[in-house]
């Protein structure tokens, strides 16, 4: 019984020793280098098992193999025996398994890993992470695109694992994440030493349309184009060049985004501090046109001080014209200061105020009644516009075209471009209006015809026509019409047919209408006036004399 027990124990111990000493295929085992020959290392992995491994499997990328007899190494046992009776082992596979274990721990802990770029593939590079091969995308090499990755090849450096899949054997790493983290730390340190209002030196790294990026020693600040100079700067390249060292002032620091705003003009005196003293209201100065818009032109009075000449203040005569047709960029012009708003840093300027108002000049040189000559510039439904000295226009209203014709008919006699003469009748400087008259070039035939005739005058007219409603008469070439009711004081004599064409008749002027150019005439009014005059001269009806006696006396007196 005891002998059987001893045999069983011995067998168990023997089997246990076999299990311990005999490595299993597909695992990593320890071995000892017993010889190095023909570019291979012969390794004893125990249990009288030996295998061969190429020396290159012991070398890191870009380095020579470092292996000597007696060194203990870990290898991957692929098979216990091959056709030659040797173990099939691999140092590279052992390193890979070891590396994957190490990398998985680093990935889980979000730790950096060390590796070396050793090859170029489509879309990026390959990286040796101490036995495991990872993919480095081109976009993850640096914070900026890298044109030549040669200096980075074979260089041991830290990487951040972005993604890994052991089953598929995929690892993606980033060098950029390490650089950005380092840069962020560096930026934080530099920003911590900066303060708003501080003056620092920097190097211009990049220039854009809106400004320039300045390197302040590990951190970039933006120098906006509006903060480069007090004057207008069209493009930063006008005053800066890449690589130039400049002095700037820290205007603002955003601690969260690490953005820094810089300024150059803040280191210079603000020209607006003395604007009100240098440019009093209504003073005239010479400036340079810097910009032209639809609503006016900007004029630089000095570097940093610009004023706006509004389109309404550009010309006395050119209305609704684009400013670009009056001035041009870079042109030097004389302007008057109209208004200053230092708080808003605005100056209102006037271009036309440096010249005399042409309507004032015209009023002084062409008083009412002056004869002028000009070209018909425009014909409208209410009159003609005539070009006058001073690049201004005067208007001849329809009613001032002719004494005899209706305005609508008279205007048909004129064409655009005709040169005509006219008389100045009115100049309104405030409303910028000049009234002209063509018909007043000749005397008023109506006024000349009626001479000293006025209301109440007795004149002699010739009968020119007999009509049912009255008679047409003529006086000095002026036609008038006497209605039936005005032909006599007595109703029985209010008959047009009692007159004949060519008869001469005395009539009384009842109205002188210069506007309609007509005389109001009446025989009846003349008879009544004569009766009244006779009564006043020879007596009244109250004295006992009859009207017939009075009129008889008046007639007799007239005969004498």
UniProtKB/TrEMBL annotation:
Residues 26-92, 110-176, 197-265, 282-352, 369-439, 456-524 form the S1 motif domain. Keywords: Repeat, Ribonucleoprotein, Ribosomal protein, RNA-binding. InterPro entries: NA-bd_OB-fold, Ribos_protein_bS1-like, Ribosomal_bS1, Ribosomal_protein_S1-like, S1_domain. Coiled coil: none annotated. GO terms for cellular component: ribosome. Binds mRNA; thus facilitating recognition of the initiation point. It is needed to translate mRNA with a short Shine-Dalgarno (SD) purine-rich sequence. NCBIfam families: PRK06299.1-2, PRK06299.1-5, rpsA. Belongs to the bacterial ribosomal protein bS1 family. This is 30S ribosomal protein S1. It comes from Marivivens donghaensis. The gene is rpsA.
């Amino acid at each position: 019984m005891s002998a059987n027990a001893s045999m069983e124990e011995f067998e168990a111990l023997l089997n246990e020793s076999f299990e311990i000493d005999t490595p299993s295929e597909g695992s990593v085992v320890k071995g000892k280098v017993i010889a190095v020959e023909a570019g291979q290392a012969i390794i004893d992995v125990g249990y009288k098992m030996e295998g061969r491994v190429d020396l290159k499997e012991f070398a890191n990328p870009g380095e020579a193999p470092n292996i000597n007899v007696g060194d203990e190494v870990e290898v991957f046992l692929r098979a216990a025996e091959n056709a030659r009776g040797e173990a099939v082992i691999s140092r590279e596979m052992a390193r890979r398994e070891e590396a994957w274990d190490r990398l998985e721990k680093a990935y889980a802990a979000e730790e950096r890993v060390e590796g070396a770029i050793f090859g170029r593939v489509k879309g990026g590079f390959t990286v040796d992470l101490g036995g495991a091969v990872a993919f480095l995308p081109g976009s993850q090499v640096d914070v900026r695109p890298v044109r030549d990755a040669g200096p980075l090849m074979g260089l041991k450096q830290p990487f951040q694992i972005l993604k890994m899949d052991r089953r598929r054997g995929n690892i993606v790493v980033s060098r950029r994440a390490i650089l950005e983290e380092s840069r962020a730390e560096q930026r934080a340190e530099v920003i911590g030493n900066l303060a708003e209002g501080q003056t620092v030196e920097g190097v211009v790294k990049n220039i854009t349309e809106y400004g320039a990026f300045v390197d302040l020693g590990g951190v970039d600040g933006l120098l906006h184009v509006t903060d480069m100079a007090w004057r207008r700067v069209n493009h930063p390249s006008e005053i800066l060049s890449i690589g130039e060292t400049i002095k700037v002032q820290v205007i603002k620091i955003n601690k969260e985004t690490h953005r820094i705003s810089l300024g150059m003009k803040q280191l210079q005196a603000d020209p607006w501090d003395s604007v009100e003293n240098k440019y009093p209201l209504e003073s005239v100065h010479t400036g340079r046109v810097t910009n032209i818009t639809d609503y006016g032109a900007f004029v630089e009075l000095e570097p940093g001080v610009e004023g706006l000449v509004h389109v309404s203040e550009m010309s006395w005569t050119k209305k609704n014209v684009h400013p670009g047709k009056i001035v041009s960029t870079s042109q030097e012009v004389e302007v008057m200061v109209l208004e200053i708003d230092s708080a808003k840093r605005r100056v209102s300027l006037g271009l036309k105020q440096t010249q005399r108002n042409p309507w004032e000049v015209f009023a002084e040189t062409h008083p009412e009644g002056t004869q002028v000559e000009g070209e018909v510039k425009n014909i409208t439904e209410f009159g003609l516009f005539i070009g006058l000295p001073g690049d201004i226009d005067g208007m001849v209203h329809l009613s001032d075209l002719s004494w005899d014709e209706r305005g609508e008919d008279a205007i048909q006699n004129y064409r655009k471009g005709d040169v005509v003469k006219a008389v100045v009748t009115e100049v309104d400087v405030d409303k910028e209006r000049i009234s002209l008259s063509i018909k007043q070039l000749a005397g008023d035939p109506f006024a000349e015809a009626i001479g000293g005739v006025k209301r109440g005058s007795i004149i002699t007219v010739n009968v020119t026509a007999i009509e049912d409603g009255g008679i047409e008469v003529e006086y000095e070439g002026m036609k008038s019409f006497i209605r039936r009711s005005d032909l006599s004081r007595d109703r029985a004599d209010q008959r047009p047919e009692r007159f004949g064409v060519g008869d001469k008749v005395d009539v009384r002027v009842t109205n002188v209408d210069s506007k309609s150019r007509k005389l109001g005439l009446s025989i009846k009014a003349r008879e009544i006036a004569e009766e009244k005059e006779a009564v006043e001269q020879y007596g009244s009806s109250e004295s006992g004399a009859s009207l017939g006696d009075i009129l008889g006396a008046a007639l007799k007196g007239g005969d004498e």
